[in-house]
Known about the structure:
Layout: H1 5-9, E1 14-17, E2 26-31, E3 34-40, H2 43-51, E4 74-78, E5 89-92, E6 97-100, E7 105-107, E8 113-115, E9 127-131, E10 134-137
Antiparallel strand pairs: 1-10, 2-3, 3-4, 5-6, 6-7, 7-8, 9-10
Amino acid sequence: MNPDASTIAAGAPIEVDLAPIAEGQDIKVFWRGKPIYISHRTKKQIEEARSVPVASLPDPQTDQARVKDGHDQWLVVIGICTHLGCIPIAHEGNYDGFFCPCHGSQYDSSGRIRQGPAPANLAVPPYQFVSDSKIQIG
């Protein structure tokens, strides 16, 4: 008894199995018609994100505030540039995060804006871990 496609498109929660996502890999799923990037971050990416002085960021937010406690390796963000709504490319740009080729906005491996015209960080959708290897978005 799964919901039909129109119910899912309207915003029903979706579950994503994280087990097949290798360290350093990103996948893109869709929720409410929006692209959601799920990144299995490396220790290097986490350390780089946490070493940035938060006060130097255009939209100050710690890396810890953008991930779930105990699941630091998983970043889940809405893949829509906060400048004009383009779709950024994962693992591109100067910060090993996301790059929006339309106007040059660059986000780090925590989805925080670091360079370019975007005014804010990539949004984090509502999600929760239902097990160590599965999340529910929505």
